[in-house]
Amino acid sequence: MRLRTASRVALATGLVLSAAACASSNSGSGGASADGKVSITVGCMPPTTQAGPRANWIADVAAFEKLNPNITVKGDDSNPCDDPATFNAKLASGKMDDVFYTYFTDGANVVASGQAADIQQYASQIHGLSDIQPALTNIYKQGGTASGDLYGIPKGNYSLGLVYSKTLFQKAGLDPNKPPTTWDEVEADAIAISKLGNGDVGYADYSAANTGGWHFTAELYSRGGTMVTPDGKSAAFDDANGLAVLQFLHKMRFTDNVMGAKQGLQYNDLLQMMASGKLGMYVGDPVTLTTIHDQYNVSYDDMAVGPMPGQAATLVGGDGYMFNKKDTPAQIQAGIKWINYEFLTSGQGLNFNYPRRAEQKEPVGLPEPDLWTGATAAADAAAMAKYANMPVANFATYVAALPSMKLLVEPPQAQALYAQGDKAMDAVLTDPNADPQKLLDTFKAAANSILANAQQ
Fold first, then answer.
1. pTM higher than 0.85, yes or no?
2. For the domain 20-150+318-344, what is the CATH superfamily, name and number?
């Protein structure tokens, strides 16, 4: 659900962008020829509106092709990379790229559609696969479990936590290096911040443009709940955990009076409130700090991210690549080589070329993409630390908590469910007489209808 922001990289002018590096979406264009050469189309090449990342992509393709002269990479710069309005139609028609981009929420549907190639026999060629977080690789496995065959490769993810103002924590007499780790502690700290006066809001939350349902889901996960049954056919949130989410917010809004009068908030609203210096806490992920820093000139020293309160689980989102079922074995292996080079090797590629990112004044030090565990994670963290241009200590509690938390993806039919969740979230934040249980029941009925229709 997290909204994507355009890159803020500024490169020197004069770089010529090769049209040959861009191709329209069309699979099956280049199996291995008699001389062993192979061509692949790859989705999600940065568009022309993102000059910096696009230039880096083109440079990386050139370097990769020099190392692998038998492989030609043709980038597909369709934007957005994964358009929900057209994705399923393209999938069904077989018009996906040879190596096509997906959100995590697409994984299970693509596998079930039969339109993706089974790449299990090539798994040993994937760089650091054993150290990629199992919860992420399972998204691209048959049945979503570790025992299933592999159909895709994750390349990045984000995990929600608690963004907070170190400045307001200090003013309120709270330890800015010890964010709350339970919802009760969030409430206590929000009360302390709101008591500062001057219009300071202790805690704020979303309730519009599908962001309310998104945060309901995240907060439900953090309490040990789940949105749908294991088969994805029925709502499962109308229980003590779901009720606790709504009751807590209603209490914070109308009993504690720590959430401010303005409601109906959506994505950018909380970022703007944090940038104003008037908001203490909100649920979000580390990259929102970059947006606040870049767009509103707020120092990274003033903000930090702690773990998702409750620490039972957190909502993750992310993306990866899958392979068209029409691909030849040579195309699959070439695609894996490209993904290894561009997305899975610390020190190179779009995300992990830390010297280049630092030189181009891209943020270095964010705990995203959070792909790896074990030795690979440790080595990447050490490499990143050498070029960090932000205070990495401000993410320490967030990073420390993640390994022990369940990482849960968004539910099926996420956007439709979120739209209904907005209604419940808005009601508990605007109506002092709202009945959380009735709101939950109404939400459940709407969710069951959405899920039933999706099965037809």
1. yes
2. Periplasmic binding protein-like II (3.40.190.10)
